[in-house]
Design brief:
Layout: H1 2-23, H2 30-59, H3 66-87, H4 104-114, H5 116-128, H6 132-153, H7 160-180
Length: 183
């Protein structure tokens, strides 16, 4: 179970890493970096828990085909991650904004948007009856760490790295989706 939890946490934190990496090319104070990392962690953990509750509640209604629902959600999320990575390679639309910093509203918005995948995965975890506290905490901690990492590595790496990592994460979620068919 440890490796499965770790895999989910790392894969779901790739969006947070990629967003932070893209935004990290601009100046970030230590306080703003912490705010971004905390908001990413909070959004990812809460979204996973909400998705879990939705999935758990629906489990009795769809017990005969829940593995297909989990498969569909994971494949859809993974495919979406791959599609976004493919269509954003090398280009960011943020160049027209103030080059000095990012505002807190933008940080909260990005944190929320990157947690949508966690909501869908949480539904899958609820359908599979996984221990939500373990998964939510691991996903939140991974999002916190990956956001910090993305911000600070942006100064040292080419921008295509984030897209490649997101593509890999999407492929892993698709593979996990196929694994759900065997449950």
């Amino acid at each position: 179970m440890f490796w499965e939890v770790l895999l989910f946490a790392v894969v779901l934190s790739i969006d947070s890493f990629s967003a932070a990496f893209a935004m990290g090319f601009r100046h970030f104070s230590a306080k703003r970096a912490f705010s971004f990392a905390f908001s990413s962690a909070f959004a990812e953990g809460v979204a996973t828990a909400i998705g879990f509750l939705l999935g758990s509640g629906a489990k009795d209604l769809i017990v005969n085909y829940d593995h297909w629902v989990a498969f569909g959600l994971l494949v859809a999320v993974g495919t979406h991650m791959c599609w976004e990575a493919y269509h954003h390679v090398g280009g960011e639309e943020e160049d027209s904004e103030d080059p000095r910093t990012h505002g807190i509203i933008k940080i909260l918005f990005i944190s929320t948007v990157t947690s949508i995948d966690s909501l869908s995965v949480g539904v899958s975890l609820g359908l599979a009856g996984k221990p939500i506290l373990t998964y939510s905490l691991a996903i939140a901690l991974a999002a916190f760490a990956s956001t910090y990492l993305g911000l600070f590595l942006a100064k040292r790496m080419p921008s295509a790295f984030g897209s490649r990592l997101e593509m890999f994460g999407g492929a892993v979620l698709i593979a996990i989706g196929f694994k759900m068919l065997s449950i």
